[in-house]
Amino acid sequence: MTAPSEVDPGTPFDVEPAGPAGPGGERGARRTVLRYALAKAGGAVLSIGMVIVATFFLFRLIPGDPAIAYTRDVPLDPAQLDRLRHQMGLDKPLMQQFLDFVGRTLTLDLGTSYEYKRPVADLIAERVGPTLVLVGTGLVIAVSLGLWQGTRAAWKHGSRFDRFSTGLSLVLWSVPTFWLGLLLLMVFAAGVGPIPGIFPTRGMEDVDAPDGPLYLLHVAHHLVLPCLTLVAVVYAQYLLVMRSSLLDEIGQDYVTTARAKGLRDDQVRRRHAVPNALLPTVTLVFIHIGFVVGGAVSVETVYSWPGLGLLFYEAIQGPDFAVMQGTFMVVCTAVIVMNTLADVAYHVLDPRVRSA
Protein backbone atom coordinates (compact mmCIF):
# COMPACT_ATOMS: atom_id res chain seq x y z
CA MET A 1 0.00 0.00 0.00
CA THR A 2 1.39 3.37 -0.96
CA ALA A 3 2.09 5.79 1.86
CA PRO A 4 0.35 9.18 1.66
CA SER A 5 3.67 10.99 1.36
CA GLU A 6 4.82 8.87 -1.57
CA VAL A 7 4.01 9.41 -5.18
CA ASP A 8 2.84 6.64 -7.46
CA PRO A 9 5.46 6.53 -10.27
CA GLY A 10 2.81 5.52 -12.79
CA THR A 11 0.67 8.63 -12.19
CA PRO A 12 1.64 11.91 -13.84
CA PHE A 13 1.40 14.17 -10.81
CA ASP A 14 2.45 17.40 -12.53
CA VAL A 15 0.32 17.28 -15.67
CA GLU A 16 -3.27 18.46 -15.87
CA PRO A 17 -5.63 15.70 -17.01
CA ALA A 18 -6.30 16.19 -20.70
CA GLY A 19 -9.96 15.88 -21.57
CA PRO A 20 -11.42 16.42 -25.01
CA ALA A 21 -12.57 19.92 -24.09
CA GLY A 22 -10.01 20.76 -21.39
CA PRO A 23 -7.57 23.62 -21.75
CA GLY A 24 -4.70 21.17 -22.10
CA GLY A 25 -6.63 18.66 -24.16
CA GLU A 26 -6.29 17.63 -27.76
CA ARG A 27 -9.08 19.92 -28.92
CA GLY A 28 -7.46 22.94 -27.28
CA ALA A 29 -4.11 22.08 -28.85
CA ARG A 30 -5.71 21.85 -32.28
CA ARG A 31 -7.37 25.22 -31.84
CA THR A 32 -4.07 26.75 -30.80
CA VAL A 33 -2.31 25.35 -33.88
CA LEU A 34 -5.18 26.50 -36.10
CA ARG A 35 -5.06 30.04 -34.75
CA TYR A 36 -1.30 30.12 -35.16
CA ALA A 37 -1.55 28.82 -38.74
CA LEU A 38 -4.22 31.38 -39.64
CA ALA A 39 -2.11 34.20 -38.20
CA LYS A 40 0.89 33.04 -40.20
CA ALA A 41 -1.23 32.70 -43.34
CA GLY A 42 -2.43 36.28 -42.90
CA GLY A 43 1.16 37.44 -42.59
CA ALA A 44 2.07 35.49 -45.71
CA VAL A 45 -0.73 37.13 -47.70
CA LEU A 46 0.49 40.54 -46.56
CA SER A 47 4.05 39.65 -47.56
CA ILE A 48 2.94 38.50 -51.00
CA GLY A 49 1.09 41.79 -51.45
CA MET A 50 4.27 43.67 -50.60
CA VAL A 51 6.17 41.52 -53.11
CA ILE A 52 3.69 42.49 -55.85
CA VAL A 53 4.17 46.18 -55.06
CA ALA A 54 7.95 45.88 -54.82
CA THR A 55 8.16 43.90 -58.06
CA PHE A 56 6.41 46.59 -60.06
CA PHE A 57 8.51 49.50 -58.79
CA LEU A 58 11.79 47.54 -58.57
CA PHE A 59 11.95 46.81 -62.28
CA ARG A 60 10.85 50.37 -63.09
CA LEU A 61 14.01 51.60 -61.37
CA ILE A 62 16.25 49.94 -63.96
CA PRO A 63 17.89 52.80 -65.88
CA GLY A 64 17.11 53.29 -69.55
CA ASP A 65 14.06 53.09 -71.78
CA PRO A 66 12.65 49.52 -71.93
CA ALA A 67 11.46 50.11 -75.50
CA ILE A 68 14.93 51.14 -76.66
CA ALA A 69 16.54 48.27 -74.74
CA TYR A 70 14.10 45.84 -76.33
CA THR A 71 15.13 46.93 -79.83
CA ARG A 72 18.80 46.22 -78.92
CA ASP A 73 19.94 49.64 -80.15
CA VAL A 74 18.34 49.19 -83.57
CA PRO A 75 17.64 52.76 -84.78
CA LEU A 76 13.91 53.53 -84.87
CA ASP A 77 12.15 56.77 -85.67
CA PRO A 78 10.08 58.45 -82.92
CA ALA A 79 6.79 57.20 -84.35
CA GLN A 80 7.96 53.59 -84.21
CA LEU A 81 9.19 54.03 -80.64
CA ASP A 82 5.84 55.52 -79.65
CA ARG A 83 4.00 52.54 -81.13
CA LEU A 84 6.31 50.15 -79.31
CA ARG A 85 5.81 51.95 -75.99
CA HIS A 86 2.04 51.80 -76.55
CA GLN A 87 2.21 48.04 -77.16
CA MET A 88 4.24 47.62 -73.97
CA GLY A 89 1.84 49.85 -72.01
CA LEU A 90 4.59 52.33 -71.17
CA ASP A 91 2.67 55.37 -72.43
CA LYS A 92 0.17 55.21 -69.54
CA PRO A 93 0.60 57.12 -66.27
CA LEU A 94 2.65 55.23 -63.69
CA MET A 95 -0.28 54.75 -61.31
CA GLN A 96 -2.45 53.37 -64.11
CA GLN A 97 0.34 50.94 -65.04
CA PHE A 98 0.53 49.86 -61.40
CA LEU A 99 -3.22 49.28 -61.10
CA ASP A 100 -3.26 47.31 -64.35
CA PHE A 101 -0.31 45.24 -63.12
CA VAL A 102 -1.96 44.45 -59.78
CA GLY A 103 -5.25 43.56 -61.46
CA ARG A 104 -3.59 41.18 -63.90
CA THR A 105 -1.49 39.59 -61.17
CA LEU A 106 -4.52 38.88 -58.97
CA THR A 107 -6.08 37.02 -61.91
CA LEU A 108 -2.80 35.08 -62.44
CA ASP A 109 -2.13 36.97 -65.67
CA LEU A 110 1.60 37.70 -65.59
CA GLY A 111 1.63 39.47 -68.93
CA THR A 112 3.08 38.58 -72.32
CA SER A 113 6.75 38.04 -73.04
CA TYR A 114 8.25 40.60 -75.43
CA GLU A 115 10.86 38.08 -76.54
CA TYR A 116 8.81 34.91 -76.91
CA LYS A 117 5.46 36.53 -77.82
CA ARG A 118 3.77 34.15 -75.37
CA PRO A 119 2.06 34.45 -71.99
CA VAL A 120 4.59 34.54 -69.17
CA ALA A 121 2.50 32.09 -67.13
CA ASP A 122 2.84 29.49 -69.91
CA LEU A 123 6.61 29.96 -70.07
CA ILE A 124 6.93 29.57 -66.31
CA ALA A 125 4.73 26.45 -66.33
CA GLU A 126 6.99 24.87 -68.95
CA ARG A 127 10.16 25.63 -67.00
CA VAL A 128 8.98 24.55 -63.54
CA GLY A 129 9.28 20.82 -64.36
CA PRO A 130 13.01 20.82 -65.26
CA THR A 131 13.76 23.01 -62.25
CA LEU A 132 11.95 20.64 -59.91
CA VAL A 133 13.88 17.71 -61.36
CA LEU A 134 17.26 19.40 -60.96
CA VAL A 135 16.95 21.27 -57.68
CA GLY A 136 14.55 18.78 -56.11
CA THR A 137 16.98 15.91 -56.68
CA GLY A 138 19.89 18.01 -55.48
CA LEU A 139 17.98 19.07 -52.38
CA VAL A 140 17.13 15.50 -51.37
CA ILE A 141 20.76 14.41 -51.78
CA ALA A 142 22.13 17.51 -50.04
CA VAL A 143 19.79 17.14 -47.05
CA SER A 144 20.52 13.43 -46.65
CA LEU A 145 24.28 13.86 -47.00
CA GLY A 146 24.46 16.96 -44.83
CA LEU A 147 22.39 15.53 -41.98
CA TRP A 148 24.30 12.25 -41.99
CA GLN A 149 27.71 13.88 -42.00
CA GLY A 150 26.65 16.53 -39.50
CA THR A 151 25.38 13.87 -37.08
CA ARG A 152 28.53 11.79 -37.35
CA ALA A 153 30.82 14.81 -37.10
CA ALA A 154 29.09 16.10 -33.95
CA TRP A 155 28.97 12.71 -32.27
CA LYS A 156 32.70 12.28 -32.94
CA HIS A 157 33.56 15.88 -32.20
CA GLY A 158 37.23 16.66 -32.72
CA SER A 159 37.93 13.45 -34.63
CA ARG A 160 39.67 13.26 -37.98
CA PHE A 161 36.32 12.72 -39.73
CA ASP A 162 34.88 15.82 -38.04
CA ARG A 163 37.78 18.02 -39.11
CA PHE A 164 37.87 16.66 -42.66
CA SER A 165 34.11 16.80 -43.36
CA THR A 166 33.67 20.24 -41.83
CA GLY A 167 36.67 21.66 -43.63
CA LEU A 168 35.67 20.19 -46.99
CA SER A 169 32.11 21.43 -46.70
CA LEU A 170 33.28 24.96 -45.84
CA VAL A 171 35.64 24.99 -48.83
CA LEU A 172 32.91 23.83 -51.22
CA TRP A 173 30.43 26.29 -49.72
CA SER A 174 32.82 29.17 -50.38
CA VAL A 175 33.47 28.18 -54.00
CA PRO A 176 31.46 30.22 -56.56
CA THR A 177 28.80 28.00 -58.08
CA PHE A 178 29.44 29.02 -61.68
CA TRP A 179 33.21 28.43 -61.27
CA LEU A 180 32.69 24.94 -59.88
CA GLY A 181 30.25 24.17 -62.70
CA LEU A 182 32.71 25.32 -65.36
CA LEU A 183 35.48 23.29 -63.71
CA LEU A 184 33.38 20.11 -63.73
CA LEU A 185 32.45 20.77 -67.35
CA MET A 186 36.10 21.02 -68.35
CA VAL A 187 37.12 17.90 -66.44
CA PHE A 188 34.25 15.55 -67.24
CA ALA A 189 32.57 16.85 -70.41
CA ALA A 190 34.50 19.34 -72.50
CA GLY A 191 37.53 17.26 -73.45
CA VAL A 192 40.09 19.06 -71.28
CA GLY A 193 40.50 16.71 -68.34
CA PRO A 194 41.99 13.20 -68.16
CA ILE A 195 38.57 11.52 -68.49
CA PRO A 196 36.62 13.84 -70.81
CA GLY A 197 33.37 13.21 -72.59
CA ILE A 198 31.72 11.14 -69.87
CA PHE A 199 28.78 13.50 -69.39
CA PRO A 200 26.89 15.84 -71.74
CA THR A 201 27.87 19.50 -71.79
CA ARG A 202 24.44 21.11 -71.93
CA GLY A 203 20.70 20.70 -71.81
CA MET A 204 18.30 18.21 -70.29
CA GLU A 205 18.08 15.91 -73.30
CA ASP A 206 19.49 15.41 -76.78
CA VAL A 207 17.58 15.75 -80.03
CA ASP A 208 17.70 11.98 -80.54
CA ALA A 209 16.64 11.14 -76.98
CA PRO A 210 15.20 7.61 -76.67
CA ASP A 211 11.62 6.87 -75.66
CA GLY A 212 10.24 4.84 -72.80
CA PRO A 213 12.27 3.83 -69.73
CA LEU A 214 15.54 4.65 -71.49
CA TYR A 215 14.47 8.29 -71.56
CA LEU A 216 14.72 8.46 -67.76
CA LEU A 217 18.27 7.16 -67.91
CA HIS A 218 19.02 9.66 -70.65
CA VAL A 219 17.79 12.57 -68.49
CA ALA A 220 19.63 11.18 -65.44
CA HIS A 221 22.85 11.16 -67.51
CA HIS A 222 22.38 14.86 -68.25
CA LEU A 223 21.48 15.49 -64.61
CA VAL A 224 24.70 14.22 -63.02
CA LEU A 225 26.96 17.25 -63.39
CA PRO A 226 24.35 19.96 -62.62
CA CYS A 227 23.12 18.02 -59.59
CA LEU A 228 26.68 17.40 -58.37
CA THR A 229 27.46 21.10 -58.63
CA LEU A 230 24.35 22.03 -56.68
CA VAL A 231 24.86 19.43 -53.96
CA ALA A 232 28.52 20.36 -53.45
CA VAL A 233 27.61 23.97 -52.73
CA VAL A 234 24.41 23.43 -50.70
CA TYR A 235 24.99 20.42 -48.44
CA ALA A 236 27.43 22.28 -46.17
CA GLN A 237 24.60 24.34 -44.71
CA TYR A 238 22.78 21.24 -43.48
CA LEU A 239 25.99 19.69 -42.17
CA LEU A 240 26.94 22.75 -40.14
CA VAL A 241 23.45 23.36 -38.75
CA MET A 242 23.01 19.69 -37.78
CA ARG A 243 26.48 19.52 -36.26
CA SER A 244 25.96 22.66 -34.17
CA SER A 245 22.49 21.60 -33.04
CA LEU A 246 23.59 18.10 -32.05
CA LEU A 247 26.59 19.45 -30.13
CA ASP A 248 24.14 21.51 -28.05
CA GLU A 249 21.97 18.46 -27.39
CA ILE A 250 24.88 16.21 -26.36
CA GLY A 251 25.45 18.26 -23.22
CA GLN A 252 21.81 18.17 -22.11
CA ASP A 253 20.75 16.31 -18.95
CA TYR A 254 18.41 13.92 -20.76
CA VAL A 255 21.32 12.56 -22.81
CA THR A 256 23.34 11.98 -19.65
CA THR A 257 20.34 10.27 -18.06
CA ALA A 258 19.85 8.02 -21.08
CA ARG A 259 23.47 6.95 -20.91
CA ALA A 260 23.23 6.36 -17.17
CA LYS A 261 20.26 4.04 -17.77
CA GLY A 262 22.59 1.79 -19.77
CA LEU A 263 21.47 2.59 -23.32
CA ARG A 264 24.01 1.97 -26.03
CA ASP A 265 25.64 4.96 -27.65
CA ASP A 266 23.84 4.50 -30.97
CA GLN A 267 20.50 4.20 -29.15
CA VAL A 268 21.10 7.45 -27.28
CA ARG A 269 21.98 9.18 -30.52
CA ARG A 270 19.13 7.73 -32.60
CA ARG A 271 16.29 7.82 -30.08
CA HIS A 272 17.06 10.93 -28.05
CA ALA A 273 19.68 13.35 -29.37
CA VAL A 274 19.09 13.31 -33.12
CA PRO A 275 15.26 13.83 -33.05
CA ASN A 276 15.69 16.97 -30.94
CA ALA A 277 18.63 18.21 -32.99
CA LEU A 278 16.62 17.89 -36.20
CA LEU A 279 14.17 20.63 -35.18
CA PRO A 280 16.39 23.61 -36.16
CA THR A 281 16.92 22.10 -39.61
CA VAL A 282 13.19 22.15 -40.38
CA THR A 283 13.20 25.86 -41.21
CA LEU A 284 16.31 25.51 -43.37
CA VAL A 285 14.82 22.62 -45.35
CA PHE A 286 11.56 24.46 -45.99
CA ILE A 287 13.39 27.60 -47.09
CA HIS A 288 15.36 25.63 -49.64
CA ILE A 289 12.18 23.95 -50.85
CA GLY A 290 10.96 27.45 -51.63
CA PHE A 291 14.07 28.11 -53.65
CA VAL A 292 13.45 24.89 -55.59
CA VAL A 293 10.78 26.76 -57.53
CA GLY A 294 13.24 29.48 -58.46
CA GLY A 295 16.00 27.09 -59.26
CA ALA A 296 19.70 27.86 -59.26
CA VAL A 297 20.36 30.55 -61.83
CA SER A 298 24.11 29.90 -61.98
CA VAL A 299 23.82 26.13 -62.34
CA GLU A 300 21.08 26.25 -64.95
CA THR A 301 22.94 28.90 -66.92
CA VAL A 302 26.27 27.04 -66.94
CA TYR A 303 24.69 23.76 -68.02
CA SER A 304 21.93 25.32 -70.19
CA TRP A 305 19.36 23.48 -68.09
CA PRO A 306 15.91 24.60 -69.33
CA GLY A 307 14.48 25.69 -65.98
CA LEU A 308 13.29 28.86 -64.30
CA GLY A 309 16.85 29.96 -63.52
CA LEU A 310 17.83 29.92 -67.19
CA LEU A 311 14.56 31.64 -68.11
CA PHE A 312 15.32 34.46 -65.67
CA TYR A 313 18.87 34.81 -67.02
CA GLU A 314 17.58 34.97 -70.59
CA ALA A 315 15.03 37.60 -69.54
CA ILE A 316 17.82 39.75 -68.09
CA GLN A 317 19.82 39.38 -71.30
CA GLY A 318 16.77 40.48 -73.32
CA PRO A 319 15.74 42.45 -71.42
CA ASP A 320 12.24 40.99 -71.08
CA PHE A 321 10.64 42.83 -68.16
CA ALA A 322 7.43 40.80 -68.17
CA VAL A 323 9.36 37.53 -67.74
CA MET A 324 11.65 39.05 -65.11
CA GLN A 325 8.66 40.26 -63.10
CA GLY A 326 6.83 36.95 -63.41
CA THR A 327 9.74 34.72 -62.38
CA PHE A 328 10.70 37.08 -59.56
CA MET A 329 7.20 36.99 -58.10
CA VAL A 330 6.97 33.20 -58.40
CA VAL A 331 10.26 32.71 -56.56
CA CYS A 332 9.38 35.19 -53.80
CA THR A 333 5.91 33.71 -53.35
CA ALA A 334 7.34 30.20 -53.10
CA VAL A 335 9.83 31.27 -50.43
CA ILE A 336 7.12 33.05 -48.42
CA VAL A 337 4.79 30.04 -48.57
CA MET A 338 7.55 27.63 -47.54
CA ASN A 339 8.61 29.91 -44.68
CA THR A 340 5.03 29.95 -43.44
CA LEU A 341 4.81 26.17 -43.60
CA ALA A 342 8.13 25.94 -41.74
CA ASP A 343 6.81 28.13 -38.92
CA VAL A 344 3.64 26.04 -38.64
CA ALA A 345 5.57 22.76 -38.77
CA TYR A 346 7.96 23.98 -36.07
CA HIS A 347 4.96 24.94 -33.94
CA VAL A 348 3.49 21.46 -34.33
CA LEU A 349 6.71 19.49 -33.84
CA ASP A 350 8.18 21.33 -30.85
CA PRO A 351 5.90 21.50 -27.78
CA ARG A 352 8.20 24.16 -26.26
CA VAL A 353 7.15 26.56 -29.04
CA ARG A 354 3.43 25.89 -28.39
CA SER A 355 3.81 26.56 -24.69
CA ALA A 356 5.83 29.75 -25.18
TrEMBL record:
Entry-linked SUPFAM superfamilies: MetI-like
GO cellular component, one term: plasma membrane
TM regions (residue ranges): 37-62, 128-149, 170-195, 215-236, 277-299, 328-349
Pfam families noted in UniProt: BPD_transp_1, BPD_transp_1_N
Location relative to the cell: Cell membrane
Cross-referenced PROSITE patterns: ABC_TM1 (PS50928)
Domain ABC transmembrane type-1: 128-342
Gene3D superfamilies for this protein: MetI-like
Start and end residues of each stretch annotated as Disordered: 1-27
Membrane association type: Multi-pass membrane protein
An individual GO BP term: transmembrane transport
The keyword Metal-binding is annotated on this UniProt entry: no
Keywords for the protein's UniProt record, in alphabetical order: Cell membrane, Membrane, Transmembrane, Transmembrane helix, Transport
Family per similarity comment: Belongs to the binding-protein-dependent transport system permease family.
Descriptive protein name: Peptide/nickel transport system permease protein
Species for this entry: Streptosporangium subroseum
